[in-house]
Amino acid sequence: MESRGSVPVRPLPYEGVWRFTAPAVDVSVPRARHAVRDLLARQAVPVDGDVVQCLLVIVSELVTNAVRHAAVLSPEIAVEVAVGADWLRVSVEDNHPYRPKALERDQARTGGRGLLLVRELSREAGGACDVEHTAGGGKVVWASLPLTSPTAPPSTP
Fold first, then answer.
1. Taking the CB of residue 84, how many other CB atoms lie within 10 A of it?
2. Dist. CA 96–CA 137, nearest whole Å
């Protein structure tokens, strides 16, 4: 536990890490989105509504990508939500070794822009996203966002 001076820093009541697994099938997309939304509400995370909406789109895109592109080698995916004092991070892990890249905008394609959307939503919200390899040869795709939208009006005391 860190300390500032002589006072130890204690986590806020909503801080923590939660992880759940799901089969890599289409029905897991809305289930993951609802699970994340319900988790934020249950933990009373003080997150802006705009950030929640952004996060839920990101969850949908990341789980959809894992279902569509990794299911053949990863019949199960893991979704992790980590919440800090002023940020949150969602990640989706699968066992497929392919590391996806955000495709550029191509109006002729009907799909394939999910990671681009995640990257742009994360950036606009003041966060970040990336893809990392796991020790087991799979990957984790994650996005982190601040709890407060950069475009939200300042709160008044």
1. 16
2. 7
Task: Decide if 45 contacts 147 (C-beta within 8 A).
Answer: yes
- Which segments of the chain have a pLDDT < 50? 156-157
Note every long-range contact of 4-12, with CB atoms under 8 Å and residues 24 or more positions apart, other chains counting.
11/85, 12/85
**Could you give the CA distance from residue 14 to residue 70 in angstroms, rounded to a whole number?**
32
DSSP string across the chain: --EETTEEP---TT-EEEEEEEESSTTHHHHHHHHHHHHHHHTT----HHHHHHHHHHHHHHHHHHHHHHTTT-SEEEEEEEE-SSEEEEEEEES------PPPP-TT-SS--HHHHHHHHHHHTT-EEEEEE-TTS-EEEEEEEESS-TTSPPPP-
pLDDT of residue 157: 46
What is the spatial distance between Cα 129 and Cα 144, in angstroms, rounded to a whole number?
6
Angle formed at CA 77 by CA 75 and CA 82, multiple of 5 degrees: 175
- Residues making up the chain, counted from first to last: 157
pTM for the complete prediction?
0.85
